[in-house]
Amino acid sequence: MYKKYILFALLSAASTPIFAQRANVQGIVRNQVSKEPFSNVRLVFEKNQKSVVTDSKGNFSLPKLNSGEETILITGGNIQEIKITVQIPASGLLKMDDIYVLPSTDNDNMVQLSMAADDLLDDDNESFDQNIAAKIILSNDVYVNKIGYQLSQFRFRLRGYNNRYEQKYINGVHFNDQLRGVFNYASIGAINDLTRNGDQDNAMDASTFTFGSIGGSENINMRASAFAKGAKATATYTNRNYYSRGMLSYSTGLMDNGWAFTGLIGGRYADKGNIEGTFYKNFSYALSIEKQFQQGKHSLSLVTFGSPVERGQQSGSFQEAYDLLDNNLYNPNWGYQDGKIRNSRIVTAYDPTAILSHIWKIDPNTKLTTGISLHYGKYASTALNWYNGPDPRPDYYRNLPSYFTDSITNQSYTNLWQSAKVSQVDWDNLYLVNKLENKINDGAAIYMLEKRHSDLLESSFNTTLNKTINEHAKLTLGIGAKGSQSQQYKTVADLLGAEYVLDIDKFSERDFGQNTGQSQNDLLNPNFKARKDDIFGYRYNINIKSANAWLQNEYTYSNIDFFYATQLSYTSFQRVGYMKNGRFPTNSYGKGQEHHFFDYAFKGGMTYKFNGRHLLNAKISYQTKAPLANDAYISPRVSDFTFEDLKSAKIFSTDISYVFSLPKLNGRLSVFQTNFTDLISRQSYYNDAARTFINHGLKDMNQVNRGIELGLTYKVDNNWSVDLAATKAEYYYSNNPMGAQNSENGLINNEREMVYLNNYYVGGMPQTAGTLGVRYFVNYWFFGANLNYAGDMYLSKAPLRQLASNYSTINPYDPELDNAYHILTDQEKFKNSTTVDLSIGKILYLKNRNSMNFNLAVNNVLNNKNIRTGGFENARLDITAANKFASKYYYMQGINCFMNVSYRF
């Protein structure tokens, strides 16, 4: 009897491996139109909680899948997301039929990244299960994908964060500059076709390439092997800052000899932009070369790109000017010279970049990614300057009718403005004034055009080790270092017919006299007569160095995932002055004080998986962050002075999210709060009462950002889908910081006074926003419509209006004083705005596997009193039919046409 039980047990044990076997799945993803392979497409096997990304030939392979019915989410930055259902066998190999997907029809005005993670691109990383469904679902974020693009016209910011809290990497190398802390999107302008692949982490998620940031992190993959073989030509028409854009790219794909090449040339152009007085000229290029050795164990990549641009700018103005001209797109920067339009504010920028990166797959579970970069950003902007003459800007407040109290002069100026005779720069008069001055005196300029330069030479190094320890644990280590030299100076752009400009400070001369040392911008070269292209006014460098090291552990189980990470960093900066300023002779020339900061950071998160479709995710982070050099100096053009007792800011952030992925409905609901402590900021403005240029610094500012986010996408059927993304938030100051005023003419020196900001809202962006979209696709025709909303938009508070002394004279019993108090201290709120976006297009099938994608988009702005060239603006459709349709409250926002022709060799 016992022998039977023993035999049965042995047979059962022997049979266990058979029942434990799991199936392997292989396949290829193709373009439904051209039938060519589609690279960098992610397939998420939701029930098995595994993911794989197609290679440059469209192939994918995934081992050890459990049997049964499986739903596969197919997504990526270049395709229209779909879901399919397959039956996984109990064992063996399932070779799937070719999967056909359609190219994305989304407008590509901004950089769009696929959600592929670099650590999942390894075809040979098969030793352990890729139990990462939670991470993939979290990164494939409906809310982030929809709301950022749709609401960009309102200057929407994700969770209200400044863009310095968003990290950008290219091929694993950090590219936020160290002076302002932001990524220069202009450096990749018109090379969109090479910036779509990459890795994205939201908020403080676990990352494969960085410690992370509260605003999210992106790593653009520009390695040549990431692009499928073929050529693509793109032509774009729009009526915004530029009206035409073109790109031509070609990639060899990864060839059998291990080489891959990808190149692109492009450009954007408008001789006359949609806003009067503007223009746009841009040429772009990119070249990516990659060589893989030892069957892909080593990969060496070199990428270089640049996008030089020249453009005429628009500026904001007073509401009075908009009302006088009945034009919310009024631009005061331009005027006629000899009958031709000339803009006084012209930007030239060029940021040539080179990146050398290496990937070493040490073993199937270990990868080391190392990269270095060098780029030299050159940026310059022109502006009018004047000496012993009236302000030449047409919208200067003394040139507006409201400045004049008598009704006759007021009406006279109103008539002049409405006839547009005084609303633009009078170039001919500026030349005439300088010409008369040349006859009377020795040729010194009263009016001239200066060029303000801000160049940045920067080198970066990053190395990251990704290690899969076992099927449950991963380890990631990273080291980074960066060195920057910011070069700040200005030159003479145009003397407007004069012989030279005297290099003295006009405000100091008024207060101290021309022959005193205080009026000299450079005591080493007094009374310098600056001519065309000469440096004058100010010249200084800020040298910045930083280094960091970070560690991250991730643990993944069937029902729960969690991670934690920590980082240590060091930052230093120092100003080097090349002019001895007369107002600050002992604190402007030579090397200044070097400032050092040691910072730390911690983050952690946990995801509970109710099943493969419902997740609960929570994250928490705390970090100290060194002040940016651009904020730390009080008056960097003339002195080395910084805020007293400089210290790092403290940032505490947490969020909780419910995430779900159903066959027809995907979405996320989140609540978040971030507390900022010990922030600093500097605002610079001309104080007409003090008659000088003021730098007003705020120290030890506290701020709270909190809110709710909702993102949903519902696939009605194979043709119809509906998207919703919305947020309700509050971004406000939570204390009254100490302010310090300093004037560049030396009269006002560190005048300290509390600034009342407590409970005022952070301005410049909507705090309530949402977009509801409908998409339809049939027979390669596609149609989309979005209703967008932005509300709770506030004007930023000027610290001069919030000084504590303004509150000391309050008399609620004096109606006049009480009314003045409210005018001074109340925060202006913009009207809520609504836009409607429509798009229609067709993907055409041509011979020889060519394809053409045509997309026409129309955006209609409603309630346009918030749409200004200096505020929440976008362009108006400038054609007769649209102008007839437009009324005072209804303007066309813009029209975009996209036509793409692709040919695969």
Automatic annotation (TrEMBL):
Residues 1-20 form the signal peptide. The keyword rRNA processing does not apply. InterPro entries: Beta-barrel_TonB_sf (IPR036942), Carb-bd-like_fold (IPR013784). This is TonB-dependent receptor. Keywords: Cell outer membrane, Membrane, Receptor, Signal. It comes from the Bacteria. It is found in: Cell outer membrane. GO terms for cellular component: cell outer membrane. Coiled coil: none annotated.
